[in-house]
Amino acid sequence: xxxxxxxxxxxxxxxxxxxxxxxxxxxxxxxxxxxxxxxxxxxxxxxxxxxxxxxxxxxxxxxxxxxxxxxxxxxxxxxxxxxxxxxxxxxxxxxxxxxxxxxxxxxxxxxxxxxxxxxxxxxxxxxxxxxxxxxxxxxxxxxxxxxxxxxxxxxxxxxxxxxxxxxxxxx
Length: 171
Fold this sequence. Notes:
Blueprint: E1 8-11, H1 17-27, H2 32-42, E2 48-53, E3 59-70, E4 73-85, H3 94-106, E5 112-116, H4 119-123, E6 128-129, E7 135-137, E8 145-149, E9 160-164
Parallel strand pairs: 4-5, 7-9
Antiparallel strand pairs: 1-2, 2-3, 3-4, 3-9, 5-8, 6-8
């Protein structure tokens, strides 16, 4: 077991769906993120879906990547969301290991990854404010919208509006 208390980070299995839902319901104030993951899964839009498990192989965390577009075009981008860890396991490095693992998995073909989140937290993984790359988002946030180039010259060469998968509109 690692110092963070995680036995394994692995791709989700079909049998993990209920446990993944429970992690999101425990980590967030509403079931919106759990519903989002279920909808992305049902519609085949979970490009990467990883779980963190404990020694008993119980799911204690989850992170997902799904496609994004820039000005309606597929540019090879992915959105990191949601990321959740059971409250009892938070502040032990589980979330950080999940983020690093999904970014490593994204290296198998993604051009870039965007995230809506705490700039201080995501900067440690190499994310920068998306506006530096001329990217905006449909939610009207600025500092919290961040991007990370995965493939050299992977970010779109022109400015544009990033849109997450349609399932995000329910949030």
